[in-house]
Structures are given as structure tokens and as C-alpha cells.
Amino acid sequence: MNYSETKNTTSLALLTDFYEITMAYGFWKHNMHEQNAVFNLFFRSNPFDGGFTIAAGLETAIDYLNKFHFCRADIDYLRSLKGNDSRPLFDEKFLEYLTTMEFDCDVEAIQEGTVVFPNEPLIRVKGPILQCQLIESALLNIINFQTLIATKSARINLAAKGEPVMEFGLRRAQGIDGSISATRAAFIGGCSGTSNVLAAYHLGIPALGTHAHSWVQAFEDEPAAFDAFAAALPTNTIFLVDTYNTPKGIDNAIEAAKKVEAQGYRIKGIRLDSGDLAYLSQLARKKLNEAGLQHMKIVASNDLDEYLISSLKQQEAAIDSWGIGTKLVTAFDQPALGGVYKLAAIETKTGEWLDRIKLSEQSIKVNIPGIQQVKRFYRNGVMAGDMIYDQRKDLSGPVKMIDPSDPTRTKILDKASLSCEDLLVPVLKKGKCVYQQEPILKLQQRTSQQLDLLDKSIKRFVNPHIYPVGIEETLYNRRLELIVKYKQDKQG
Ligand SMILES: Nc1ncnc2c1ncn2[C@@H]1O[C@H](COP(=O)(O)OP(=O)(O)OP(=O)(O)O)[C@@H](O)[C@H]1O
Ligand SMILES: O=P(O)(O)OC[C@H]1O[C@H](OP(=O)(O)OP(=O)(O)O)[C@H](O)[C@@H]1O
Ligand SMILES: O=C(O)c1cccnc1
Question: How much is the pTM?
């Protein structure tokens, strides 16, 4: 469904939490609505107890921001909302303001497919506070989900070590949009295609698949089913061999393949969907090779994930390609990424920027203030550490970064001896898109290139090393001063 077209609206402005609109109204009432602020979208820990995360969802977020406006139907709905005195909640002049309001924030973001880490701003929004606030919920919805699934997909593809992974998740995904955005993120993470035809069509990625057990059940016996499928689609046949008895199914697939290949076609392979996938794949490989069908690939499916793929590889399973649904598109072992969107600075009427934090019992959970950028350092072509800093800070010469979870751990980084790059790039300037959209294949390639630059100790699934992410010293101290100040205020 194209949600943008529901109720004659071309915008998703109402896809927000109600409190964003009541706060927007409050800002407007107090004439604060045009006061500039900076918000950062970041997460606090890598999903799946992993050592890294893959950023995804930016293009969807840009599309949302480009279309952001309140149409007549949105305004009519807001006008209908009443307070507990049964009178309209919102002033007509506020509704008029929303009608004519144009999104004019500056947005910077880390590109999709980039390896990212906790506390780094994936998106930074700077502009009128009312606008920054209204987009919080939708941005989080988009980025949290796609980043989570892209990360799961990257882990699964790392386990598959370059063998093709087909995403088969439509039937188990979280609703319609959940399936399409999961397909998008799974492709960015490294999957070679999807069984979801609508997603393949919209994303311009390969539509892939085999056949179901129902195909075999629909015929009198398995040989008849295989012959019929291969006759109908001789250039796209992968036989599902486990409907009745897998070893017999493999023999039947071989017989059917030989007949079609005698006519000059090449059968793609077979799929195993139950039983001991290590043993059965080895058996199938042996039988296929003995029949001179070395080119036929063996696809495996059945509740697979990165851990089972690794285990099957350790068992020397003869599997060439993987079909993965449920555990990929639902991010089965961690259903959500806990990304948040926090106010980090606010501009006064005189143009001075003030730092802002949200206090927490655990100081590691206190957000980083300021107008942040992330600098990534490389040593011998490998990622060596990231530094979160305030972009107004002069970074010529060596800089010290401090680990927020253990301030005794510090690192001196010098631009002169290490190569480095800033990760946040301009996306919207004064609300106008300045970002060149990239083909989705480029995003997938970025994921793979980025993972190649990451030490393998950080990519392992069990007890991965923690990649060093620090806060530049002066910013670290500013944050500490604010924590002390607000803690004193709390006590006083
Ligand atoms: N060699 C293996 N090592 C580890 N796990 C395996 C191996 N072979 C299969 N598995 C996994 O074990 C789980 C159970 O598979 P199994 O085929 O026994 O049960 P099932 O899915 O209930 O089968 P069925 O579809 O016939 O009901 C699946 O997640 C499957 O991927
Ligand atoms: O296992 P997943 O990773 O989710 O991959 C998708 C599954 O969907 C299909 O099964 P089907 O819907 O026929 O049900 P099944 O689980 O009983 O095989 C297919 O045969 C896979 O097993
Ligand atoms: O094409 C397949 O094999 C397929 C598609 C969806 C779900 N399971 C398998």
C-alpha cells in the first residue's frame, strides 16, 4: 500500500506520536517554535550482542522528509481533536501555521551500508525546534527497523562467507510495510535477492525462489511433479526434495534433471528444507556429482540464522546457497533496535548555542551534547577508532578522545599520522535535498567494503571485541560539567 496516498494526503506528517504534536503546539503558544535546536538520532548498544551495526533506512527517511507537510485532510483531523472541556484542542492560528509550514531543517546523516557503533549520531537534525520534534517518531521508526534488519542480514551474510543468501521472509514479516522495508534492509546487508515480488519490483533487485511442497502434493507422485515443473520453467528450476523422503527426492530430482538437460537446458539445483542439512547436503552432492550434475546447486532452508549457518559450515555441509525468512526479517533474537532521538543543543535569541543533556542514573546513558560529527580513523587501511566531536572544535594537531564507559581509557589521535574521514554528510540544507540518491547495489557494496575494513575480532558472533568509540576531550568535559551541574540542581 502506498501510505502516502491514503486519505488524499501525499505526506506522512501524521505518522507521529501525539505528544510530538502537543509539544509542537506548546512551542508555538510560547513563541518558541522557530528557535533552532539540534537533535541526534543514535543507539546505545549493538544489536544481537554483536560488535557492529549497519546503518540503513536513510533513503526512506529522506523520502519522508522531502514529502513532509500537513495537507488539508491532516489539518481537518487535528481540528477535530478536543480537550477534556470538549472544545477544540488546537488554536485555529496554529493549524494555519502548520498548513503553510515548510520543512526547512538542515539534516546530516551517515550513509547507508556504513558500519556504525553505539552513541554515534546516525542522523543530526538542526532547525526550528517545532519541526525537529515533529519528525522524531517517524525517523526512529524508519532507521531503527532498517538498521536492525541490515545488521542481521550482514551477520547472516558474513556466516555464509560470500555464498548467496535469498531472503524468504514475506510470510513471516511484521505486516506489509514491514516486509518491504525488511527486504530493502536485508539486501543492503548483503542478501542476493528476495522471494517478495512487490519488493523486488519496487527496489529493482532480483526476484528469486524455488517451489513449495504444495507443488509436489498437487501431483500423483514426486517424479510427475518434478517433470512438470521443469517442463514449465526449464530455465528456473530448483526442486524441493523433502516432501516425502529426501534421499528418494534427490534421486527423483536427478532423473527429472537428466531428462530436461537432454533437451539442452541446465537445471539450477535442489532445495533441502528439513532433516539433517549437513548429512543430506553431503549425500545430495555425492549423488548429483555421480550423475554428472556438478553444476546443480544445493539450497538449504528451515529456520536458519547466522549461528546455524556457521554450525553447518563447521560440519562441512555441501550447501551452496541459503534461503532465510523468519529469523532474518523479524530480527528474531532482538525484535527492536533501541535507537533514540535526543535534543543536544538549543540556540538562544542572541545566536548562542547552549548544550543540552538528559540526565540518567547511569552516566553512560547521558546523551552527548553539542553539534556533533563523527571522525573515523584508519590505521594500515583498517578502522582504528571513531571520535565523536563538536564540529565547531578545531581539530588541527593531535586530539585526545576519552572512552565514556571508562574515562581512564584515552587515545591520542593525530590526523597527520592516521587517515580519517567525517561520517556525517549533508543530506538536506534548509529542507532542500542535497543528497545524491545511490543505487541500492551501491549500498550493498558499501556494507561489504566496510566490513572488510573491520577487524575480525569485532565481527565474531561470540564475545566480540569492542570497537573504540570515544568522545573528544573538550566535548567530554563539557558533558561532564553538565552532568555535575544538573546533578547538583537535582540534589539542591
Ligand atoms: N546438521 C545440523 N546441525 C544443526 N542444526 C541443523 C542441522 N540440520 C538441520 N538443522 C536445524 O535444526 C532445526 C530442526 O530441523 P528438523 O528438520 O529436525 O525439524 P523441523 O523443522 O521440525 O522439520 P520438519 O520441517 O520436517 O517438521 C532447524 O532449524 C534446522 O535448520
Ligand atoms: O524457515 P524460514 O527461514 O522462515 O524460511 C522460509 C520457510 O518458509 C517456507 O516454509 P513453509 O511456510 O512452507 O513452512 P514450514 O516452516 O513448515 O516449512 C520454506 O519452506 C521455508 O522453510
Ligand atoms: O522460493 C522459495 O523457495 C520460498 C519462498 C518463500 C518462502 N520459502 C521458500
Answer: 0.96
Evaluated on CA atoms 209, 213, 214, 218, the torsion sign reads positive
What Cα–Cα distance (Å) separates residue 171 from each residue in 16, 177, 312, 321, 342? 27, 12, 25, 20, 35
Tell me the CA distances in angstroms from 250 to 260, 275, 289, 324, one per residue in order: 15, 13, 12, 21
The pLDDT score that the predictor gives to residue 10 is 64
Cα separation, 278 vs 268, in Å, equals: 20
pLDDT band at 492 (very low <50, low <70, confident <90, very high): low
Write down the number of H helices and E strands in the chain: 17, 21
Show the ligand 1 pocket: residues with CB < 6 angstroms: 274-278, 302-304, 308, 311-312, 315
| Closest listed residue to residue 364, CA positions, set 337, 336, 403, 334 | 403
Same domain, 253 and 190: yes
For residue 9, is pLDDT > 80?
no
What is the span of the domain harbouring residue 70? 3-149+341-491
ipTM over 0.95: yes
For ligand 2, the distance from its centroid to the CA atom of residue 161, given in whole angstroms, is 22
Residues 167 and 108 in one domain: no
Is there an atom of ligand 3 within 6 Å of 326 CB?
A: no
